[in-house]
Amino acid sequence: MDLHSTYPGVMDLKWRAQQRLPKFVWEYLDSGTGVEATKARNRAALDRVGFLPSILHGPQSPDLSCTLLGQKMPLPFGIAPVGMSGLVWPDAEGHLARAAATAGIPYSMSTVATQSPEDIAPHLGPHAWFQMYPPKDEEIRRDMLARARSAGFTALILTVDVPVASRRERQTRSGLTNPPKLTPRVLAQVAMRPAWALATAQRGMPHMRTLDKYVSGPQANLPPTAHVGYLLRTSPDWEYARWLRDNWEGPFLIKGVLRPEDAEPLERIGADALWISNHAGRQFDGSPATAEALPLVRAATRLPIIFDSGVESGLDILRALALGADFVMLGRAFHFALAALGQIGPAHLIDILKKDMIANMGQLGAADLAGLPPPITLSDLGPVSPV
User: Fold this and answer.
1) 207 is catalytic
2) 3-state class (DSSP) for residue 160
3) Average pLDDT of the chain?
4) Is residue 7 classed exposed, middle or buried when 0-12, 13-18 and 19+ CB atoms within 10 A define those classes?
5) Mean pLDDT calculated for residue range 293-311
6) Of 127, 279, 335, 348, which is the active-site residue?
7) How would residue 209 be classed by pLDDT, with cut points 50, 70 and 90?
8) 0.90 exceeded by the pTM?
């Protein structure tokens, strides 16, 4: 089967994913928080970023490579961390890590993944990043860093935009709990999605394996959008970030930056890159779109900037780069690909994004990423529905 004839874009993978996932899993993956205004703003802000096409450049073979953190990357995008990836598709972390290693792009693993650093170690490529939800206990913290380093993770991500659990009302309404409980309501949803049910039954119900070492016995009565990780973690402050910088050898990335005034103090504590993110609209429904925040933060720092939230195409990647990002990460899109196509999904999505970038760079006459023209602001035509 020619995948590009059936699934030529991210929206095709998204549609197929929804057909294959139980409702509670789909709501976990796709939902934001509140009325999902931030999620909508992310999309609308990217859609307002345009370019003036350029003509008469002759045949081109655009170069998609870039440099990040002193390393040459074949593509300007990678895989963002998503908690409980294995709920979306069994062995999600393994599939994603292997696809990233093959393509030579970064793979980011969450503290609250369904596999541990030790599980994923054999599958990691040279650009393996570990995303930390900050443990309160210093000994757990030290041990977690040592495990990530021993497994082969080369960069550490501190996520700073989750000081508390968000409400995520769609997720709550679906009946999802962490860990998932097979209530009659959930079982009815599972019965309607046999492919997911069979694949999950073969591997077992997912849980947060990295945390097994630190949590045992009965768990506290947590709200539906929280999880066992909240029993261990704290809301980090500036001193906490300095401690991590001092205790991690390798690139240190701060994820969840939106304020330009935070750039200078983050530089002072030794951050190697700033990651502009609003958690894809999953944490706070009063946040600006990341595409709106990006130029302001870019003007405030010389550090590399990584960008995420709402990215759904190769054109979106070019938009972010033109606004000042050095690199772009996608989370939901890679999980749409997994849910739609299983283990072959991530590689197909990488190919979709590459082809879309090349097609759009051809319209712009850009031979490489440095040759992208300045962005322009397009008229806001309202939501655009895929064909």
Assistant:
1) no
2) coil
3) 92
4) buried
5) 98
6) 279
7) confident
8) yes
